[in-house]
Design a protein that fits this description.
Oligomer: single chain
CATH topology of the largest domain: Rossmann fold
Number of helices: 10
CATH superfamily of the largest domain: NAD(P)-binding Rossmann-like Domain
CATH architecture of the largest domain: 3-Layer(aba) Sandwich
CATH class of the largest domain: Alpha Beta
Helix content: 25-40%
Number of domains: 2
Largest sheet: 7 strands, parallel
Structural class: alpha/beta
Radius of gyration: 21 Å
Distance between the termini: 25 Å
Length: 322
Amino acid sequence: MTAKIHDILIMLPWPASFRFQYEHLIRAAYPTLKITTVSTLDETRVELPNAEIFMAFGAALTEDVFEGSQRLKWVHAFGTGVDGIVDQPHLGRDVIVTSTRGIHGAPLSEVAILHMLAMVRDFPRSVRARDNHVYDRFRIKVLHKKRVGILGVGLIAEDLAPRLAALGMHVVGITRTPRDLPGFHSFAPRDDLTASVADLDFLVLLIPLEDATREIVNAQVLGAMKPGSYLVNIARGGVLDEAALIAALKSGHLAGAALDATQKEPLPADDPLWDAPNLILTPHNGGFYDTYADDSIEQIVGNIRRFQEGRFDQMINRETRT
C-alpha cells in the first residue's frame, strides 16, 4: 500500500539566503509535495500538528516541540545525531526516525585537525599579536609522533584516523568493539576510560550523546589524562562535563581544549566557558559547510520514495527504537 504524504515541515534556523536549500532540492524531485520551511521553534509549534514528515537538526529542538503532532509519521535528522529527537517525551513510538550519515567525515576531520594544529602551535597567540602589531616569535609544538585517542569509532572516526596517521600521529581507537580499520594503530577499551586516556597527548570526542554517554568525560577522566595534554570535542556538548573541563584548564592540568559543540547552544554570553584559559570555541560549524544540502539530498529523496511506496523497512539510516 502506498503511503500518501500531504505535508513536509522543515525547520532550519539558518539565514534566509540558504534556509530553503532543502525545500528547493526536494521540490525538484517531488514537485507535487507540500513543503513548508520555518526558522524558529515558535513557527514549528504552529505548523507541526499538520505535518506528516518533519526534518530538522535534533540539537535545535526542545522537549515540548512534538506536543500535538498526532499526524507525524516520520522525523528526519539533518545531522548524524538523533539526540533531541528519539529522547523526546512526546514523540510517538511508531514514528520513524532517520538521520543523515556518511557525509560528515571530511568536514569534521578538517575541524578536528584545525583545532589540534591551532592548539599545539598556539595560533590564537599569533592572531592576538597580529591584532596588536606585535612580532611575537615563540617555539611551537607539532602533531608528529604524538598519541591521539578517538573516543567513539564510527564513520567519522574512520575518516579521521587515516588523516591523523598521515600526519605521523599514533592513533588509538577507544571503543567497545575494536576491529581492523585503516589508520588506527591500536585500540583501548571504552569501559575503562580513565586507563585508556592516561598516555594520550590528544583526546578527540566523537561519541554519540546517549543516556550512557552523558558527561562520560568527567572530572575523573580529565584528571586521568596526561598533564599537558589536549582535548577536542566535535561530538555533542553533553558528552563532556564542562565545569570539570574549566577546572582542568584553570589548574593547568590540560594544556588546552577546543570545543565545536557545547551543552548550551547558542552559548550564552555569560557562560564561564568564554573566560576559560587556553580554550578555543567554534559555533558548532564543523559539519556546517557550503555543499552540505547537496551532499545529503540523495539520502533524503530516496527515503521519501521508499516512504511513499510503503517500504518503511528499507529506509536507510533508520534508527531502531525500543
